[in-house]
Amino acid sequence: MTQPRQGARRSYGVKTAPYALPSPTTTLERARSAPYFFLLPAALFFALFFALPIGYAVWLSFHKVEIKGLGLGKGARHEVWAGLENYTSALTDSEFLHSALRVLGYGAIVVPVMLGLALFFALLLDSERVRARSFARLAIFLPYAVPGVIAALLWGFLYLPDVSPFLYVLDALGLPQPDLMDGGPLYLAMSNIAVWGGTGFNMIVIYTALRSLPAEVYEAARLDGCSELQTALRIKIPMVAPSLVLTFFFSIIATLQVFNEPMTLKPLTNGIPSTWSPLMKVYNDAFTGGNIHAASATAVVLALATFALSFALLRASNRRTAQGASR
């Protein structure tokens, strides 16, 4: 009788099929299809809540409602092809042009002041002499966590002469009380809300870039006898230029899309018209005037202008960066 080899596995009458390893081709196909499986939920939500609304807005912008007779009864109102009529009306509308000019003036105040303060606070927090850095960073960032509508309401009541403690102090001191809700001071009032709420976010972006810089650069500057101011101007600011460009793009886009501040302050004053900003013009045409097709055309024009401006600024920034690298 033949004895089994020592260490061999015994079989008790059960035949087992040998384990077949997957072929390299099957493994490669599974690896290639895995990323698409994980991207499917994000792509689905992107299509439903981003691409589809944009496509529908573009479709509405090329149509208009045609009314027959008095517009009563079935079939009296139906959509027809309008071509570029809505776009022509939007580009020649004086209210839209005035709202665009108002937003440009608003952005000329907000963007430089906000980015300047953000850069200043980031450089200040990056200094070794600053105490209570964590508390200061949180205090500067905290206004960004306040929703825009609540911030606008808060500052709106601080601007009103009857309830503002600042204007009460000025009155008690016999000083003139400026009307911050009308005329030229209105730009400063709304700009203050945007600067107060957006400086913290931009500061965090710039400060993070500063903390990622290698310590050897600072040590070399210190050995060369550079002061804190010279290090900031000649080393820190040039090296965080990409972060400054990024925050500049974000600020430009947010400025062109300003809506919360003027819309929230509008019930508190008569100095803000219903079409103060382009987005307010879109809202007024769609939900007050009932002309959703003209509002869609205006929204598409605003989106294209934002894209063109961002692309031009990014192209100029990349060209300047490439020229600096070649030197």
**SSE class:** mainly alpha
Return Rg in Å.
Answer: 30 Å
Q: How do the helices and strands follow one another from N- to C-terminus?
A: HEEHHHHHHHHHHHH
The number of distinct helices, counting runs of at least 4 residues, comes to: 13
Please summarize the sheet with the most strands: 2 strands, antiparallel
Strand order of the largest sheet: 1-2
CA distance, first residue to last residue: 88 Å
Outline:
globular
Number of separate strands:
2
Explain briefly what this protein structure is.
The protein is mostly helical and 327 residues long. 69% of the residues lie in helices and 3% in strands.
Keywords:
2 strands; 3% strand; 327 residues; single chain; mainly alpha
Question: What do you see in this structure?
Answer:
With 327 residues, the protein is mainly alpha-helical. 69% of the residues lie in helices and 3% in strands. It is built from 13 helices and two strands; from the N terminus they run H-E-E-H-H-H-H-H-H-H-H-H-H-H-H. Strands 1-2 form a two-stranded antiparallel ribbon. Helix 3 packs antiparallel against helix 10 and helix 12 packs antiparallel against helix 13. The radius of gyration is 30 Å and the shape is globular. The N and C termini lie far apart (88 Å). The model has no long low-confidence stretch (mean pLDDT 84).
